[in-house]
Amino acid sequence: MIYLYAFALVAGIANAFQAGANSTLSKTLNQPFLAALMIVGVSALTLAAAGLISGRLAWPTSAAFAAVPWWAWGGGLLSALLLMSQLFVAEAIGAGPFLGIIVVAGTLASLLIDNYGLVGFKLHPLNAWRIVGGALMGAGVLLVALF
């Protein structure tokens, strides 16, 4: 189980570099939407290669497609929103504030998602400690943004 936390840690570090790399690509090309399409294309090729190499890439059955909840298809739209925020916002406000806001907003949203068991997550009720943790993260981001 520890490897899952390590993977999440590496993903968090990659996220910090990704925002800068994506923003630089957009700025250098002076074409943010083309940059976004190129980023998504590289992502798709990388995922296809990883899936083929691991032997875990297969086309689902029509029954599997039909079983997907309607809201699960929105993940691609949310990915596009995150990508566009990297291209238009990250460089303007800086890496620390940008990623801090993303992490705190995600953490606060996850508290509600867990509390109500939304989008496929198990119910994990909100409590005082979780609220304090979210508030401390918000205070930390404020300090990073101000100083």
TrEMBL record:
Domain of life: Bacteria
Signal peptide: 1-21
Transmembrane annotation, as ranges: 32-53, 65-89, 95-116, 128-146
Entry-linked InterPro entries: YdcZ
Keywords: Membrane, Signal, Transmembrane, Transmembrane helix
One of the record's GO cellular component terms: plasma membrane
PANTHER family: INNER MEMBRANE PROTEIN YDCZ
Protein's name in the database: DMT family transporter
Species for this entry: Lichenibacterium ramalinae
Lineage, opening ranks: Bacteria, Pseudomonadati, Pseudomonadota, Alphaproteobacteria, Hyphomicrobiales
